[in-house]
Design goal:
By secondary structure, the chain is mainly alpha-helical. It has one domain. Helices cover 84% and strands 0% of the residues. It has 12 helices and no strands. Helix 3 crosses helix 11. The relative contact order is 0.13.
């Protein structure tokens, strides 16, 4: 649903770090337009199909097991990854047009951002709040406002499983340092960018990777707990959201077909 403003978001975000010149901006916008069109044409129909199948699957369902949530999540991850790789050629082309001074600009701005993040990294209350807010926002986007018992379950989960803010910063630093290290060597640079799109898990800081993978399964447990306590009204909202979002994506698929002519 962010596809309409994705180009502006991506270009603005990149420009914050690399200070693009007008030619780089023009080339990036053109390649992103083509990539986003492919996403709408190739990935969106898969997304529509999955949303519709999930709605049929949950109709009348009483128990939402962790294994079921995991299955849905893995299906969406596969769809997401198949869409993500569409952007790799654009990323490769963009990086190949960067100057040494722009990479230095990236390092300076990245380090500044990291220092800002480090202020909260050791704050356990913020780590708990991030875990709580992320889950609450995600769940409410599908089933509406949570009832008190559901909120209590998430609060308890967040207290026991605060988000690994410190490890997240270590992971950011590892990836940034690797990019800066390989940049002078085109072959190594190309391989690194390729791995980001096709095998990101292998590039992560090991301890952070383990925490995130373990945390994902715990997330499935709490999501299962919350869904198993849905009210009748929440179940109706979930079904309506699935149908509505499938219809929104279908409209964009239809619009894409018209744009191709």
């Amino acid at each position: 649903m962010a596809i309409n403003w994705a180009e502006n978001f991506i270009t603005n975000y990149i420009d914050q770090y690399f200070d693009m010149n007008s030619l780089q901006l023009q080339l990036l916008e053109k390649s992103l337009d083509e990539d986003l069109l492919k996403v709408r044409k190739i990935i969106f129909p898969k997304l529509v199909d999955k949303l519709q199948k999930i709605n049929l699957d949950i109709e009348g369902r009483i128990v939402f097991k962790e294994s079921l949530i995991n299955s849905y999540a893995m299906d969406f991850k596969e769809i997401f990854n198949s869409g993500l790789v569409i952007f790799e050629p654009s990323a490769q082309a963009f990086v190949n047009h960067l100057s040494v001074s722009q990479v230095q600009s990236f390092k300076n701005k990245f380090d500044k951002k990291t220092k800002e993040l480090e202020k909260d990294a050791g704050n356990i209350l913020k780590a708990r709040k991030k875990r709580y807010d992320d889950l609450k926002t995600h769940l409410e986007s599908w089933i509406g406002t949570l009832v008190s018992e559901q909120q209590t379950d998430i609060e308890k989960y967040a207290d026991e499983n605060p988000f690994p803010l410190e490890e997240q910063i270590l992971n950011r630093n590892k990836l940034a340092a690797e990019f800066i290290k390989v940049f002078p060597d085109k072959n190594k640079r190309t391989k690194f960018i390729h791995e980001l799109f096709y095998n990101y898990e292998s590039l992560r800081e090991p301890h952070y990777a383990k925490l995130m993978d373990d945390g994902l399964h715990k997330d499935f447990e709490i999501i299962s707990t919350v869904l198993n306590k849905m009210t009748t009204y929440q179940k109706k909202i979930l079904s309506r959201k699935l149908i509505d979002r499938a219809e929104q994506v279908k409209k964009m698929v239809k619009k894409t077909k018209l744009d191709l002519f």
